[in-house]
Amino acid sequence: LRPDGTAALTDLRAQDRLLAISGQPLDGLGERAFFELLRRSPATEVVVRVQSGTEAPRDVVITRMRATGP
Fold it and tell me: For residue 21, which of 54, 49, 44, 55 has the smallest C-alpha distance?
């Protein structure tokens, strides 16, 4: 997590494993498709499903910023 990024302002933790973005499972999803899910309209909310260690998965709502990546 970047200290100045949107994720750092939420309940996301550095050791969280990303499971899904907006209901789209990330298992087997390529890097390009991953960033496309994030690049949707800035300033809109997105639900990210994460899991910390052996805890139950949880949903975290974040507001999109301009994504960087491939």
Answer: 49
Q: How far is CA 2 from CA 12, 18, 32, 40, in A?
A: 11, 15, 20, 19
46-67 confidence digits (pLDDT tens): 888 999 999 999 998 888 766 5
- Is the CB of residue 26 less than 8 Å from the CB of residue 34? yes
pTM of the entire predicted model: 0.69
Task: Find the length of the chain.
Answer: 70
CB 60 within 8 Å of CB 10: yes
